[in-house]
Amino acid sequence: xxxxxxxxxxxxxxxxxxxxxxxxxxxxxxxxxxxxxxxxxxxxxxxxxxxxxxxxxxxxxxxxxxxxxxxxxxxxxxxxxxxxxxxxxxxxxxxxxxxxxxxxxxxxxxxxxxxxxxxxxxxxxxxxxxxxxxxxxxxxxxxxxxxxxxxxxxxxxxxxxxxxxxxxxxxxxxxxxxxxxxxxxxxxxxxxxxxxxxxxxxxxxxxxxxxxxxxxxxxxxxxxxxxxxxxxxxxxxxxxxxxxxxxxxxxxxxxxxxxxxxxxxxxxxxxxxxxxxxxxxxxxxxxxxxxxxxxxxx
Length: 298
Ligand SMILES: [Zn+2]
Prior knowledge:
By secondary structure, the chain is α/β, with parallel strands linked by helices. It has a single domain (6-289), classed as 4-Layer Sandwich (Metallo-beta-lactamase, Chain A), CATH 3.60.15. The protein has nine helices and 13 strands. It has helices spanning 6-10, 12-34, 55-58, 99-107, 118-124, 142-145, 160-163, 246-251, 255-271, and strands at 40-54, 66-78, 82-86, 110-111, 132-136, 154-157, 172-176, 194-196, 204-207, 216-220, 225-227, 276-278, 287-289. The strands form two sheets. Strands 1, 2, 3, 4, 5, 6, 7 and 13 form an eight-stranded mixed sheet that branches. Zinc ion (ZN) binds at residues 141, 143-144, 230, 280-281.
């Protein structure tokens, strides 16, 4: 079974509605999908620590095997805004005292070692902490916000429900919620709230509720990347979503919305297979992405 599988049967009625719009959407996509804003020149995927869990604990019908779930950070290089981060991975903060973090490490044992922090990874690539002026936050869980305190002055962008959970920090120059709601973008055929984050069409924020309220995914047309945060455990695990056991279901803020959001991502992927979808905890290597027109690109 590929993307979606059982998920699609659940949302059959809604899919029919989407299909009706498909004619219009397809035309727009051909226009839009091949029109690259030309603003994002590169992106890099880093793994900043990981947690472990047993797949058999998470899902019924899978092999009983331990899996590492890396905490991903995407560095997005923008012609006008410089270095932008999407999430910040773990940091040493995950080992602080406190009942919440103790419980978190109990259910999701964390591996984080020297050199795993995002500012250390960037330094190896010749990027200083001062270069990061904007951080886009998918949501406020420890594996996504760990590195927020590593950067001296930046703008923090995320949805309201997420930003209000982040304590006031002196190194955050300003906070901003996505405001420019899009109505004629091809992603509007799949997601209810789609925002142009910088007003140039280069980075599009998509609301992906379910795992938590106000989770923000990203669409980067120059790279044909759709970053889906924690809307799924991993690309190869999407097919097992309906077999998720009770405990991991309860970790999701709203499992009904979680399934709905994942179904929308699956429909998008099915209609546009050229879109590369990444979840924050996908397996695989750290890697770099370039627009296809570059000779050395992917
Ligand atoms: Zn996560």
